[in-house]
Amino acid sequence: MERKRIFTGLTWESAVGYCRAIKIGDRIEVAGTTAMIDGNIVGRRSI
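That's the Fumarylacetoacetase-like C-terminal domain-containing protein sequence above. Prediction below.
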């Protein structure tokens, strides 16, 4: 099966080998992401 890596174009993706999703055949596997503002995780709760 053909495998296609999907990138957003951010420079660090190629530096660390990370991609947002991979399409394999007729399936798309999506990587998890975290929203951040000024280095802080958005929606983070204290435990």
